[in-house]
Design brief:
Blueprint lengths: L5 E8 L5 E8 L7 E4 L6 H14 L4 E5 L15 H10 L11 E5 L6 E2 L4 H12 L4 H16 L7 H13 L1 H8 L4 H16 L27 E5 L7 H18 L11 E5 L3 H4 L4 H14 L4 E7 L7 H4 L4 E4 L7 H12 L9 H7 L4 E5 L11 E5 L11 H9 L16 H29 L16 H5 L3 H11 L5 H14 L22
Parallel strand pairs: 3-9, 3-10, 4-7, 4-8, 5-6, 5-7, 8-9
Antiparallel strand pairs: 1-2, 1-12, 10-11, 11-12
Helix pairs in contact: 3-4, 3-8, 4-7, 5-7, 5-18, 8-10, 12-13, 15-18
Bound molecules: adenosine-5'-triphosphate and magnesium ion.
């Protein structure tokens, strides 16, 4: 059943249940994306597991999310089970061999895998707005915040950085509105509150450094197998929006970072998007359009994207039409709505005169699916009723000790597990603020000396030096009052820091950080600029 350049999925049956033929996924067309659908308990996760195994054996790295914890078994060698053996026999899989796979576990919370982080800057305003379910007005303001930061080379690493920037903006709404368009204090406050909520939901674990390096999910082993990155998503699923946004961010990172490769013998990476409906639920049209665009274009970067969801109707039509390789498990068709879904599912296949697709979808057994993959010249194969092969790795979860063992020997062990203790943005900002303040101080000294050279000036007190009284202060603008009070205070407050940095950057365009950043389709940073 091994065929060069093809992944064995399972064996199809004739209408009389006799064995028909082996069904394959052609590696050459694996970057034309795919879709795995079916009602709960019909075999989607096992299909994902066997596809992942096959990709890994073919030297293709895979990224997938483990939504229920039952995919983690892919890191352990398979175990004998009657029903698996029986399936192997039915489909003529002989020998049925067990195998363990090279797995890297990842976890946004750092509990069940290596920590995955990104920075606020990297994520960009579009996805962040989605994450916080912002109104158009709020998103507009967030866009301005990013523009301000990007143009001034101000790194926004974590939620606190963004918060301090927003606080600065709140103090300068008038000036900034004139430069960038309307900014209301109300929108700023709503965004601030949104950030707080995010923090409470644990998103702050996810924003910071060291940020995930894409190359770490594209590894292969010495014996030529693709590494399988498994994202622990059981806890993450409690915040579906964070889950969806995270996967979108990763997709957009891949898209922005990887070079064009055109069509090749096999993909460079396969990305499984489980519970894909979460990505599209209530998504604004612009986001769906952008996702559609990324999915379309990422193909030529050698990335295959496979959506896994219950119902093909969960995926917008424009995206659905780009998913060439299809595995449809059973669906129920009792209600009119369910019938509609089955009808849509049936209509997406190239028909097989031997059976009725609609009927077949409702009658498929567990671990059985309608399969159609792309063949020569990218033409979809005629749909076949296919018994999916049993997995070679363990069916079901691994134990915690097993997981820790896998993590301990992982190629990224130690790389992401602790927060990076290098010069962080906060320190960089503080230093720059200090320099800016020092320069200001020197300037003032010079002016002071000049003043004192003129005898008549001695009669006047110096505002902002602690010798001005409140009477003086009242007449001045709010911002200059804040500036003078910050001078008196030792140490730097975040808000003052950001403010000083923006000012200092604005003064000298040619600073080491002062290069404007460029954003891609989904708003994440473009590399190599
Ligand atoms: N290809 C297969 N060979 C043998 N048994 C299978 C196969 N596919 C599924 N099964 C059996 O069906 C069970 C359920 O499959 P699976 O967990 O993949 O369903 P699912 O569609 O992912 O369900 P859910 O939507 O609840 O996540 C498996 O635990 C296994 O016992
Ligand atoms: Mg499942």
């Amino acid at each position: 059943m091994l065929e060069e350049g093809k992944l064995y999925i399972g064996t199809s049956r004739n209408p009389d249940d006799s064995i028909n033929k082996a069904e394959y996924l052609d590696l050459k067309y694996a970057n034309r994306h795919g879709l795995i659908t079916g009602a709960t308990g019909t075999g989607k996760t096992v299909t994902l597991q066997i596809l992942t195994e096959s990709f890994s054996n073919a030297g293709v790295p895979v990224f997938c999310a483990d939504v229920k914890g039952d995919l983690s078994g892919i890191a352990a060698i398979g175990e004998y089970k009657d029903f698996l053996e029986k399936r192997a026999k039915t489909i003529g899989l002989d020998p049925y061999e067990f195998q363990e796979f090279p797995v890297i576990f990842w976890d946004l919370f750092g509990e069940k895998g290596h920590r995955v982080r990104t920075t606020i800057s990297e994520m960009g305003p579009l996805l962040l707005a989605r994450l916080m379910d912002m109104s158009d007005a709020q998103e507009g303001v967030l866009n301005i915040a990013f523009k301000l930061a990007d143009e001034n080379g101000l790194p926004l690493l974590d939620l606190k950085d963004l918060r301090s920037l927003l606080a600065y903006m709140a103090g300068e709404t008038e000036k900034l509105s004139a430069m960038y368009g309307n900014i209301t204090k109300q929108s700023l406050a709503t965004i601030q509150r949104g950030l707080l909520v995010l923090e409470q939901q644990g998103a702050e674990h996810f924003f910071g450094e060291p940020a995930l390096k894409i190359s770490d999910i594209m590894r292969t082993t010495n014996d030529g197998r693709g590494a399988i990155s498994v994202l622990a998503a059981d806890k993450l699923m409690m915040n579906p929006r964070l889950y969806g946004t995270f996967l979108l961010w990763l997709l957009s990172e891949l898209f922005e970072e990887l070079p064009e490769v055109g069509d090749s013998d096999k993909p460079r990476l396969v990305f499984f998007f489980d519970e894909a409906h979460l990505l599209f639920d209530e998504a604004p049209k612009i986001l769906i359009d952008r996702v559609e665009q990324v999915v379309r274009l990422i193909r030529s970067k050698g990335v295959g994207v496979y959506f896994v969801t219950q119902n093909p109707l969960d995926v917008p039509e424009t995206v659905l039409s780009q998913l060439g390789n299809r595995v449809q498990h059973a669906l129920r068709a009792y209600t009119p709505r369910e019938q509609k879904a089955v009808k849509v599912a049936a209509e997406t296949f190239r028909p097989n005169p031997a059976f009725d697709c609609f009927e077949a979808i409702t009658q498929l057994g567990v671990g059985e699916a309608l399969v159609s993959t792309l063949g020569a010249k990218g033409v979809p194969s005629m749909v076949e009723r296919t018994l999916i092969r049993p997995p070679s790795s363990r069916l079901g979860p691994i134990t915690e000790p097993e997981r820790h063992k896998v993590m301990a020997v992982s190629p990224v062990a130690g790389q992401y597990d602790t927060d990076l203790d290098r010069d962080s943005a906060f320190e960089m900002l503080a230093r720059r603020a200090e320099e800016a303040a020092k320069a200001e101080e020197e300037e003032r000294h010079r002016e002071e000396e000049k003043e004192q050279e003129r005898p008549e000036s001695r009669r006047w007190t110096l505002p902002g030096y602690g010798d001005d009284d409140d009477e003086d202060d009242r007449g001045r603008s709010k911002s200059s009052r804040r500036k003078s009070s910050s001078r008196k205070r030792p140490g730097y407050q975040r808000q003052t820091v950001t403010e000083a940095v923006i000012k200092s950057v604005a003064r000298s365009a040619a600073t080491s950080l002062g290069r404007a950043l460029v954003r891609g389709i989904l708003g994440s940073l473009k590399k190599g600029f």
